[in-house]
Amino acid sequence: MAPAYVVDGKADGNGDSHNASASVPEYSDQVHAEVPEDLQIGDHGYKFRMVDGRVMPPYITPRCYGLSRRIETRPADVCFVSYPKSGTTWLSYIIVLLTGKAAASLESSFYWVESSWTHPMTESDIASDRSPRLFKSHMPYDMALGGTPAQNPCKYIYIARNPKDVCSSYFYFESGKSWSGFYNGGWDHWLQMFTDGKVHRGDWFEHVLSWWEHRNADNILFLTYEELKMDPRAGLTKIARFLDVELTPGKLDEVARKVSFSEMKTTEFSAMKGVKEFGKFFRKGEIGSWKEYFTVAQNERFDALYASRMGSSGLDFIFM
């Protein structure tokens, strides 16, 4: 059974979304924020709520976050994780194709338990679904789906992207949107919020490094957007091996073709058109788009911050 839209804890509608395509309702504080009075408004209208000391979108509610933490995972379950705008949707399509869990649309092929908005569901839906169940998350390691990953049989795949491209893509994604309070702060203000860890999902460095530190765990695969972009076939092979999925040369060719950026933008299944404000969800998908936003001075300051925060972690990114 697939995620069903939930209003006041009850499924809204009769169909299984794996069998019927449905549009996602526009975000509303009254419908999706659960406790609207807990929401805060920052500079330039930026709307958020605090969850376990981190800045989160209004639709990451106490009920949904609590459910995500107590989910009992199974060995066949797959949870793909990232900081937003790091290639999450791309990775989700790869996993859906490799596992054969395609439903009516890409967004109805997996669960996003921590969200009350785009992927709401009942607890019984999740418990009764057949394996492998696919889960999406944008949480750091200590807020992971199912509790502590080290104590879960679930397989976690984390994808990270260079922070300059993340920052610029996230700015485009969050500006003027209902869930962000129609934020209108402009690039300079956004960059400052991003480096201060005050955007939705908090500090990028903390988020990425929290998963990187556990990259050698048997049930965690750590990928970078850039390595997947530059050699997608090698990346697909690595993911299939981690998931114990047989990948024949023919299947590899098929998946590689379907997950190309041009194919995903135009294919109805993967275009994310079911969410009204995701009308231009896919932009360029390139490495180095940050150069359109950062001034020379901003780039120099960011480089200094990057060197300080990443230190001797051993995690390197390609910025182009």
TrEMBL record:
Protein name (database record): Argininosuccinate lyase
Every Sulfotransferase domain range: 76-313
MF term (GO), any: sulfotransferase activity
Keywords: Lyase, Transferase
Annotated family: Belongs to the sulfotransferase 1 family.
Cited InterPro entries: P-loop_NTPase, Sulfotransferase_dom
Name of a matching Pfam family: Sulfotransfer_1
